Amino acid sequence: MRSPRFLKFFAIIIFILTFLLPQYIEAQNVNKQRQLDEKLAREFYYKKDYEKARDIYKNLYDNYGQIQYFNQYADCLILTGDYESAEKAYKSFLKKNPKNWKSHVDLAYVYSQQGDNPKAVKYLNKVLKDVPDTKNAINDVANLLRARSFNETAIALFDRGATNPNINYKFYLEKAYAYNSMLDFENATECYLLYLKENPEQYEMIKSRLRVMMMYDLNGNVDDVIRMALLRKTQEEPENEEFASLLMWYSLQQQDYELALMQLKALDKRGKGDYEKDILYIAQIAGDNRQYDIAIEAYDYVLKKSDEGVFFVQATVGMIKMSYDKAVAEGKHDKAFYEDLNKKIDDAFAKIGFSKEMLPLVMVQADILAFELNRFDDAKLLLNNTLEMNLSIKDKSELKMKLADIYLFTDEVWEATLLYSQVEKSMKNEPIAHEARFKNAQLRYFIGEFEWAQAALNVLTAATSKLVANDAMTLSLTISDNLEYDTIGLKRIAKADYYIYQRKYDLANCMLDSVVAYNPNEVSLPNVFYRKAKIAVNAGDYELADSLFRRVYEGYADSYIADEALIEEALLLENQLNKKEDAMECYSKLFDYYTASVYVAQARKSYRRLRDELKQ
Fold this sequence. Notes:
Layout (H helix, E strand, L loop, with lengths): L3 H43 L3 H15 L2 H13 L3 H14 L4 H13 L3 H14 L4 H13 L3 H12 L9 H10 L3 H14 L4 H13 L5 H16 L4 H13 L3 H13 L6 H13 L3 H14 L6 H18 L5 H18 L6 H14 L3 H12 L5 H17 L3 H14 L4 H16 L3 H11 L5 H20 L1 H15 L3 H14 L5 H16 L2 H14 L6 H14 L4 H14 L6 H16 L1
């Protein structure tokens, strides 16, 4: 006989099986069908089959009443252009959900899409009025407005919040994003700078935001807007270091080294920090970009501060070296100038003594003695004496390279090739070793040993340094292409190149003229015109040089030196003839038509710089 407890348990089981289990199974089936419907609706939506997605979302919303289904359903109505149904759906929904701000904004969007802008504006004004006075609510609704491109209304909402003392937040950053969306870069920049003033610790973030604005600037307007805003802010608030630093950073991005130096000097004079290192950095990069006067001004500023400062030696070396680099770039051969510069180097050594930091002055002085004052023995003695000092292998290699250059200049070919070979062996796989191998190959080319030269050059075409590889490729093509036509013509071109190296320009011109007279062909002639142009530049006959460079790239556009002729003419037009628009045209031709050229990056950079200069 069964116990009462067993009978009770049995009755519960029967109840569960009879009544609860079918309900549970039905609920599971309903939930499974709901998941399938959701998945199917999503698939239709992502495939842009909005009508099918609409019907499923409508059914899901009717059955389960969840807001997410309504949002998707209403969105499908808008995407199918059924604005009338969308308006009815939103109005009906908002009667039950009056605080659903997304639907309020979406309804205003529907009115705007229907072309009823007054109604849309009226409704947006109602939204502005009804949004709660809290930071989170204002941010949330403003983001909804921006998602529907109601950026002006979002900004108005931010302004309302900014004036509320209970919120105590200005919404500068959020407004900047909205202005950016409207392509109103002037107000966006102003908001970023106002935010920075209140939050100086966010300097890097604001710098990043401005960088993004500049990156996506299609017509150059943003650069001017940021520049003017920063100049205005630094004038209005000269003590604000973040604004001053930002202007300096911006100047470097635009390669406006003059403005960057001005800012650094102003910061340094306030005495709130040590900016000499940054000023020397400006000097270095300005010099690297051939803006020698700005570099010299920067070095001079540091030198005038103190002759006992930490950076005095670096500034002394930089000042003298930059003065020399400027003179070389300008093709200056005034003996009195170089004698004075040589004396300044002697005075620097007398005052400072010799250290590794002074090594660049040894190299400059050797160049001046040998190539400008014709004191070859003094130059060789200087370099040989320096080589006796306790220096690194790298430093000694650089000195040997300079000594070899002078030996080659004075026709001591075998002493030169020995030193080049020593550098190549001692600095294997380093850039200076590639340069030494190239110079050795060039030496062999000068003396007519073309096969030896070409074998070395072919290895160098894969060199790490792009410039060495490009020079090696150019010289290798000079040899191989001219050998196919005329060995005698190649020997004359090689001899002319050696004369050019030795600055015997009259002899070089005579040799090149002999090629035109006796060995003219489509390979030799562009080589001749290019070399005669370089000689004309050195002689200061810039108009002749201009016509000769043009003759190379216009008459022999497929020549392997056409891109070199273009970059040389661009530099000539920019720096000597002051024809900046013509220079821009040459830079443009180079990166448009010679896309594989090693000079493309330089041409793009110079083109942008000149474009910005001409705007001012």
